[in-house]
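Fold these two proteins, one after the other.
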Amino acid sequence: MSTPPPGGILVPLDGSEMAEQALAAGVSRARKSGATLHLVTVHQPVMTTHGRGGLSRLWLGSVADRMLRRLDVPVLLLHPREVAHPAEFRRIFVALDGEIEEPVVDAALALGGPDPPARYVFTRVVEPTTPVLSGFAARPGHLPRNWNEVREIEARNHLARLTDQLHAKGLDATSQVLMGRGIAGQVIELADAISADCIVGGTHGARGMERLMLGSVADKLVRGATVPVLVVPVRPR
């Protein structure tokens, strides 16, 4: 489900129950925002993702993956499952990276609502600067020995300021900083632990060989999470 400007919500359908699982979420978003709900029928399921991985995904492609690469609007992806996804998101888990936070936060706040009130959990995963390859891994000379601790403190202070701002607006928000490698895995694990209804994350929109070689946190979230994932594309200025 994508949100094309101005004030429109697009729900692609193909006649399958799998694709129609997203219709309730689209209707709910349109009612809350006053946006026009657009339904479009296509020949392939674009509302949900089959979660292909490895070479099968590389060679066969994925409609959902192509949408994430091309669209410049937030896209809400829902995995097909036997039990329908909730139409209302009450516990929203927001993954931030310290660089593209403002549009991600705005999209997360638009996803929730005051009735019923949404609870927001903001997190940032701080990865160690020096790769842990062996006991002989050297620390870059220009960084202080406590550099990772400094980054963790800065992340905690930043998220604390963010949640304080949201508290002043009457919103329920908490934050948690995680340390370690594997950002997507840690985000999914914590989201499961708090029983999140939805995960919100941003993407820099890497394409082609850059994305293939380096991977994408957003891509791993979409494939690995069991709850809906709202991907917010943020293009470099």
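Now the second one:
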Amino acid sequence: MKKIVFIFIIFISQHSQAQDVIFSQGFLVPETLNSSFTGAIESTKAGALYKSQWKNNALRINSNYAFLDTWFETLKTGLGISLLNQTEEGSSYTFNQLNLNFAKVFQLNDSWYFRPSVSVGYGMKSFGFGNLLLEDQININTNSINRSSIDPIILGSKRNFFDFSSSLLLNNENSWIGLSIRHLNKPNISLTENENDPLDVFWSVHAKYYLPILENFSHRITVKNKIYFLLNYMKQGDFNRLDVGGQYVFDDLLSLGITAATVPTKNDPNNPLLVSVNTFLGLRWEGFRFGYSYDLNTTKFINTGGTHEFSVSYDFEINIRKLNRLKCVYCF
């Protein structure tokens, strides 16, 4: 019976972690959405994002993301690195991935620009199996514990792999639309020796579209305001999700946003269409940008305590946009 329970736990752990981390602040920190944002503001930029998920549950998950990228004007190229870390407290699961991102920009016409990119990553995942006590390690005759085990269900503690991704981005001065395809090589993430568990390809189509709703108003306050329509569709294996919402930006200093996370294609007809409502707030001060988001779970799941995200980034050359160069990708 203990073996059955152990197998079940490992099975759930492996498959639950085969899904990519999704950050609610993707429209505040677009580098998490698409590697084509590397160098997209045509300066050197660094940032970090922290996500706390299910804090009231034993399976609390913490995710960290950090990035640094820069722009080479003569080559019209962006180059950067990013690091993703994820830990699950209940299972001692840890995942780390380091990516090198390269993006190029091409001018299509007076308004639109095309930015393809490639990303090469090295991933490392592990479980804390060293703390497990298996049946054949217990010697009831001597009341001692053996350090080794020949139990056939014991798994390796680590798995390292290379990962390749590619992204595309179209933008004008106010809007953008992108496509991101991760895990093109379907790396093996199985922790079982001689087994192959390919990581499913992750697809994402995302857009931020400027709505000229307030342009008809001449009030001195409304002319500084902008409203955007937000969309992000994601699919990975059987998992799919569609986030739809809006963002309000005042004078490029304050940002308020809300998105509805839905499951448009349901594997179980009893599953709800709306799974969470995600809100986010952004503040800009000189070269800094701060963000906070809170996800409210709308399903009848256990009390998770919600999901919180905090972010901070810094633009080292904030005045560079005043130069007459290629149109930067707008993001707040």
